[in-house]
Design goal:
The chain is of the alpha/beta class. Helices cover 37% and strands 17% of the residues. It contains nine helices and twelve strands. α1 crosses α6. The longest helix is centred in the first third of the chain and has 22 residues. It is globular.
């Protein structure tokens, strides 16, 4: 990985991944985060002039419409941000001659597979959020070949609104919490996603004519669990330092109906990104412990 100073412009000013990238800024990395009101991914305006003034080596599109249930009824906004917005960012990157790294999701799959999903497996989203993110992937591919699309899953961070923070907040005033136990996937720390983005970005910049470094990749921490298993591990780690904990009551998806369906199994196969970008995903339990050590 090159030690050249790198400048990344990332969309999503206060998002989990954008914040994690900003924490990595230092002697060899500049990170400029853009968001509302200066930049609105759903406004369908050309962001090229804004990005040009920042002179990016790489543009990372981490901004997204992430309200999975709300997307079922707020479809126009979800598609504008996750679909057309991603395309606008990619076209700007192409105009500026910069690679784009686009974040996507395991929800582009239907969850019917009996093994981890590979990049070449057929997509079949079962909710509109997944459809909107798939539209974003397609828009980025259409805009520029100089891209790396990174699908990830079950993202959390030491701050912001996410499953980790929600579980700890609920445990503050509940003795037990009912959590779905028949959806399987991989919790992935935004801190690890940010580290991976930096490495992929450096590889893209250092090798501008290497097509194998570009394209579609699956990026998660390693291992698989359920939401109930994720919650139980959170409380185990929290209890070690005298933090909040609760008893996890496993339930079925049918016991907790939501407007948007979720894939039953959406673990992603990370073999390709390990081979191509030399990334070694860490066990999700280790990543969780590291993230909880940074809780505000």
């Amino acid at each position: 990985m090159s030690n050249k100073r790198l400048r990344i412009v990332v969309t999503g000013l206060c998002g989990q991944v954008a914040r994690a990238l900003q924490y990595r800024a230092g002697e060899l990395l500049d990170v400029i985060a853009v968001g509302r009101p200066d930049f609105d991914l759903g406004a369908l305006t050309d962001p090229t002039p804004l990005f040009a003034a920042m002179r990016p080596d790489v543009i990372v599109n981490a901004a997204a419409y992430t309200a999975v249930d709300q997307a079922e009824t707020d479809r126009e906004a979800a598609l504008a941000i996750n679909g057309a917005g991603a395309g606008a960012v990619a076209r700007a990157a192409a105009e500026l001659g910069a690679p784009i790294i686009q974040l996507s999701t395991d929800y582009v799959f239907d969850g019917a597979a009996t093994r981890p999903y590979r990049e070449d497996d057929p997509t079949a989203p079962i909710n509109f959020y997944g459809r909107s993110k798939l539209a974003g992937e397609e828009a980025v591919r259409a805009a520029t070949p100089n891209h790396a699309i990174l699908r990830t899953s079950w993202v959390y961070a030491p701050e912001g609104q996410n499953f980790l923070r929600t579980m700890l907040r609920l445990a503050g005033d509940r003795d037990e919490i009912r959590v779905v136990a028949d959806q399987h996937g991989t919790p992935t720390s935004a801190l690890d996603i940010a580290a991976a983005i930096e490495q992929v970005a450096r590889n893209l910049v250092a090798n501008p004519d290497a097509p194998l470094l570009r394209g579609l990749f699956h990026l998660t921490d390693s291992g698989v669990t359920t939401w109930a298993g994720f919650a139980a591990e959170i409380f185990t780690i929290s209890a070690e330092s005298g933090g909040p904990r609760a008893r996890v009551v496993p339930i079925a998806t049918s016991d907790y109906p939501t407007p948007a369906r979720r894939p039953a199994r959406s673990q992603l196969d990370t073999t390709k990104i390990t081979r191509v970008h030399n990334l070694r995903p860490k066990p999700w339990t280790q990543a969780l412990r590291e993230a909880m050590g940074k809780l505000a």
